[in-house]
Input
Amino acid sequence: MSHRARRDWGLNAAIAYPLAAVAEISGCFAIWAWWRLGASPLWLAPGIIALALFGWLLAQVETSAAGRAFAAYGGIYIGASMLWMWFVEGERPDRWDFIGTSICLIGAAIILSVPRGT
Output
């Protein structure tokens, strides 16, 4: 498969980033559960699969530079992590969590949306 053919599979960041966040956070949580919470080592198998899916999804984002895709994803990851903390772990983010997350999401939007010279 040529490099051009692989690029044609690119996903819109609005689709790829949330899916990547779920994959990354669930994969990391599987390792956390095994290591820190004493869960079965069997948790590692779906965790590794989820982390591989995360990497694949992030690679599908259409951008001219991997670093830009990774940097913009960082804001999405922070927001998704706050939602995970709230809805999975049951700890509601405080106002500083909301303020910090908002700043990060604004930064991600700037990175992804500004026009760039060719």
Q: What stands out?
A: Residues 7-113 form one domain. The helical segments are 3-7, 13-37, 44-59, 66-87, 95-113. The mean pLDDT is 88.
